[in-house]
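Try this one yourself first.
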């Protein structure tokens, strides 16, 4: 008895490997490999972005701590001390200050190794990083404090900074940053004056007196 076409198709598909019938889902990259939204991808500018973002975070400490203290006091579990929770933010300030030094050292090494001036690129990236913390008037103090409490520096900031410094130190003058501004073209030499007829000889005395060489000499008074 012949096998129905539909049954034959089912038996055929059941015999196929699973890889041929369904594609495996793509794995998300590890957290340390992800770039923050809007951050530059080039190492030097990315480290500058990290510096600006961290600097903005640290500078907000005094502004947000009253609201942070209120939040921690309101939602703190009864078995935890408020002083322990607040100490975490003090420790983050110390850790952040140490990381700023790492970023600054890497940026300085790259700027010294580059044959072209790149500090303007770095300054722009620093400002871009600080923009993360520039909020509008519609953001309440509580919302800002919550964002500040949950923020963490991207994991790749410190590893990129150390790699940047090592690369700049090793390569020296061969170090190059993407999008470096090109040096202005050399100025063209002024054309040499045309070889015209020789200028009339000038009396050295007339030059010292400021007289024009084309001024005719004064007539000699007749002798008596």
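Now uncover the answer:
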């Amino acid at each position: 008895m012949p096998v129905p076409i539909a049954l034959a198709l089912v038996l055929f598909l059941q015999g196929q490997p699973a890889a041929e019938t369904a594609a495996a889902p793509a794995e998300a990259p590890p957290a340390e490999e992800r770039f923050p939204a809007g951050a530059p991808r080039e190492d030097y500018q990315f480290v500058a972005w990290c510096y600006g973002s961290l600097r903005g975070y640290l500078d907000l400490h005094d502004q947000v701590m009253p609201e942070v203290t209120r939040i921690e006091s309101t939602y703190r579990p009864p078995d935890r001390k408020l002083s322990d929770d607040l100490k975490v933010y003090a420790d983050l300030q110390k850790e952040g200050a140490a990381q700023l030094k790492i970023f600054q050292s890497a940026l300085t090494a790259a700027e010294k190794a580059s044959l072209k001036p790149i500090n303007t690129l770095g300054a722009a990236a620093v400002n871009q990083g600080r923009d993360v913390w520039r909020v509008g008037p519609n953001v309440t103090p509580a919302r800002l404090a919550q964002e500040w409490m949950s923020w963490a520096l991207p994991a790749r900031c410190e590893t990129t900074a150390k790699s940047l410094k090592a690369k700049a130190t090793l390569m020296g003058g061969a170090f190059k940053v993407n999008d470096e501004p090109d040096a202005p073209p050399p100025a063209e030499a002024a054309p040499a004056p045309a070889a015209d007829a020789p200028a009339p000889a000038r009396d050295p005395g007339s030059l010292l007196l400021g007289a024009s060489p084309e001024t005719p000499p004064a007539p000699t008074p007749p002798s008596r």
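Discussion: Residues 44-171 form one domain. Residues 39 and 117 are 21 Å apart (CA to CA).
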